[in-house]
Amino acid sequence: MLQFITSILAAEADWVGGLIGVIVVVLIATLLVILARYKKCPSDKIMVIYGASLGKSASGSKRSSLCIHGGARFVIPFFQSYQYMDLTPISINVDLKNALSKQNIRIDVPSNFTVGISTEPGVMQNAAERLLGLKLSEIQDLAKDIIFGQLRLSVATMEIEAINARREEFLASVSENVETELKKIGLRLINVNVTDINDVSGYINALGKEAAAKAINDAKKSVAEKNRDGSIGEAEALREQRIQVADANQLAVRGENESLAKISQSNADRREIEAEALRRATTAEKIAAAKALEDAYSAERQAELARAERERATQEADVLVKAEIEKRRIEIEADAQAEQMRREAQGEADAIFAKMQAQARGMEEILTKQAEGFKSIVEAAGGNASEAVMLMISDKLEALVKTQVEAIKNIKIDKITVWDSGSGKDGSSSTANFMSSMMKSIPPMSELFGMAGLDLPKYLATKKAEAEAGAEDGKEAPKK
Fold first, then answer.
1. DSSP string spanning 294-336?
2. Which CATH architecture has domain 87-200?
3. H helices within 38-135, ranges in order?
4. Whole-prediction pTM value?
5. Residue 66 confidence (pLDDT) above 80
């Protein structure tokens, strides 16, 4: 019995030991999984975690990703994943050409930009949404397009003198405009370096020449002024020297005069010597003064020549720039006038074409209606075209007769004097014969019908025959 209990206890101990082993293995596996999914972010990268259970942003919307710079975070298996974005700076060479400045002068601005992915919370989120998964070359191309546009915008808002002389102000404007746009895709501007600024028209070169000429002229002017001051100082020193010597001589002469007052010949000699000394002193002073004035005039002449050269260079630069601007303005106005003339000519051509189309449609409609009317007349005539033509002519016969009558209707005969002999050849009067001849000059109705291809109605034809027969009888009666 004791042995049986011992065996049972041993079996239970083995089972408990196996269970503990399984639990230990499970715990170790769980710990390994946790350690494998606990990701650390290096300082030169940004870790982007995406998937489920990311919480909400500050605005209350659901987060599309979670960005971590430095530190570590547990990535939930099966529900979340992660990627890294490199913070290595990207160097971009931007060779901007023919950019239009504020003065409408095109310049070349070759420059180098250094950008990188920003670590600011909001901007870093933009980078995760727009740059995650892109290659370095693709990010570089995207940033280059943005920099090109903003660099052109910055150049367009400044004059060439400001861009060339106030380089720090220009770089600040470029940095502000470029960085504002780069933040929208998650990038930040690290450095801007404008290597050189050139223009096709040579305006910057002219500015440099003007500055060099001004510096040279200022130096020449300064040298001339210093020479003038030296000459004037030397002349003043000589003058003081001569004054002091003359004072000393005067004292000496006074002593000599007091000691030699009684010697007239000595006084005469002394006066002659003094006169000669005074003449020489006056001559020397005048020569020195003339020399000083000559040097001063020469210095002033050099200064005026330098100023004239500077003014000439300034006026040439102003004239060239204004002439270039005026030339461009005239070209633009000529292009605008030519475009206006082309548009007006095109409009007139379109109007004429529309008018001719409307006239053609109206003529086509008239001819179509006439053709339909002719077709109806032919159908009314039983399909016989000749009879249809006769129908049309008979319809217009009244108008033809009216026209015939109108031919003599308006004949005005104010007064007719007739010498009537009383009888004609056939016994009729001359007046009756005159009126009959006038009426016969008009084509009779039967001839009108004949010209139209028609026959008189039977009734009118019979009456015509009887009338002609009666007329023949009337002609033959007098012969009997």
1. HHHHHHHHHHHHHHHHHHHHHHHHHHHHHHHHHHHHHHHHHHH
2. 2-Layer Sandwich (3.30)
3. 121-130
4. 0.39
5. yes
